[in-house]
Specification:
The chain has 286 residues and is an alpha+beta fold. The chain is built from 7 helices and 12 strands. It folds into 2 domains: 92 residues, Phosphorylase Kinase, domain 1 (2-Layer Sandwich); 184 residues, Orthogonal Bundle (Transferase(Phosphotransferase), domain 1). A 5-stranded antiparallel beta sheet has the order 3-4-5-7-6, with helices on one face. Helix 3 packs antiparallel against helix 4.
C-alpha cells in the first residue's frame, strides 16, 4: 500500500505524540519530529512502521527489551505501541531526539582519521554491551550513528536477540554481511557492518563487493596511506580468523592517535563469518 507520509503531519498518535514534521522516510516507515513529556515537553522522534500481522508482536517484544537497556551511547526508546491513522494500522516507537546522523555528514565530507577514531570508541563500547547481553544491533550503518546533545549514540530500534530465529534478508545492502541472505545475522554481522561503515566514513563510499562469493570487498587504495601496512591483511583474514581473535589493542594506542585500532576494524570486512571477529568484545582488552 502506497503512503504519502506527509499526509500524516498534524495528526496525533495515541492522543499523546503529535506528528510535527517528516524527518526521514522509506517505503515502509517514516520518522517524524514529535514531543514527549507532559509538564515540560521535549523534542523526540517517532517512527511509524506498517504493522504486518506476522511480525508486529515480534517488533513490539524487541522494543520492549530495548527500552529496558541503559548505555550512554545507546539511543533511548521512550515509548512504543500500535496506532491507526487514516484507517491504516501502524506500529510506532518514540525515541530520544538526535540532531543529526553520520549519513548527513558524509555527502559533504569524509571524516578525518581522528574523527573516525572518536566515532569508533563509543560504537565499539555499545557493541560490546549489546553482544554481552546476547543482542545483535542488526542495522549498523551511517544513518544509525547519531548525535544527540553533542553525544554520539547508536540507534536501538533494530535490536534483536541472538537466540531469535534468523529471518533472511532478501535484498541485502552493502552494510549487511553476506550471510544475511543465507543464514541470517549474528554478532559477526555487526562487525562486518562496522567495517563497511568505517570505510565509507573515511572515503565517502562503501567498499566494492566482488561477485565472487568468497572474495573480500575491495577497499580503496587511498586507505593504505593513512592506515599503513596492516591494511593488506584484509585480503588474508578469511583464513586467519583464529589468530585474529587473539589480538587486543590498548586504549592508549587508541587515544594517542595510532592507526592500529582503525586497521583492526577495517580488517573485519571478510566475506566468510569465521574470518571476522565474532563479537564486539574482540576489540577490547581481555
Amino acid at each position: 500500500m502506497a503512503v504519502t507520509w506527509k499526509q500524516f503531519e498534524g495528526q496525533i498518535v495515541d492522543d499523546e505524540f503529535p506528528l510535527e514534521q517528516v524527518l526521514a522516510s522509506s517505503e515502509h516507515s517514516a520518522v517524524f519530529l514529535t514531543q514527549h513529556g507532559d509538564s515540560q515537553p521535549q523534542k523526540a522522534a517517532i517512527k511509524l512502521i506498517h504493522a504486518e500481522p506476522a511480525t508486529a508482536e515480534l517488533l513490539l517484544s524487541r522494543w520492549r527489551l530495548a527500552a529496558q537497556l541503559s548505555h550512554p551511547n545507546l539511543l533511548r526508546l521512550l515509548d512504543f505501541g500500535r496506532c491507526c491513522l487514516d484507517d491504516t494500522n501502524f506500529l510506532y516507537v518514540v525515541m530520544e531526539f538526535a540532531e543529526e546522523d553520520l549519513s548527513q555528514i558524509l555527502p559533504q565530507r569524509a571524516l578525518t582519521p581522528a574523527e573516525a577514531r572518536d566515532m569508533l570508541e563509543p560504537v565499539l563500547d555499545v557493541l560490546v554491551y549489546l553482544h554481552g547481553k546476547g543482542l545483535i544491533h542488526g542495522d549498523l550503518k551511517p544513518s544509525n550513528i547519531l548525535a544527540s546533545s553533542d553525544q554520539l549514540k547508536l540507534s536501538s530500534d533494530t535490536l534483536s536477540s541472538i537466540a531469535e530465529p534468523r529471518a533472511l534478508i532478501a535484498r541485502p545492502s552493502p552494510y549487511n554481511a553476506p550471510e544475511a541472505a543465507t543464514s541470517g545475522l549474528s554478532p559477526a554481522s555487526d562487525v562486518w557492518s562496522l567495517g563497511v561503515t568505517l570505510v565509507e566514513a573515511l572515503m565517502q563510499r562503501v567498499p566494492v563487493l566482488p561477485p565472487d562469493a568468497k572474495s573480500n570487498p575491495v577497499v580503496p587504495d587511498e586507505l593504505s596511506q593513512p592506515f599503513g601496512a596492516l591494511l593488506p591483511c584484509l585480503v588474508l583474514i578469511a583464513s586467519g580468523g583464529s589468530s585474529l581473535h587473539a589480538q587486543t589493542l590498548t586504549p592508549d594506542l587508541f587515544r594517542v592517535g595510532a592507526s592500529t585500532r582503525l586497521n583492526d576494524v577495517l580488517m573485519q570486512i571478510a566475506k566468510t563469518v569465521d574470518g571476522r571477529y565474532q563479537a564486539g568484545d574482540y576489540f577490547s582488552l581481555p
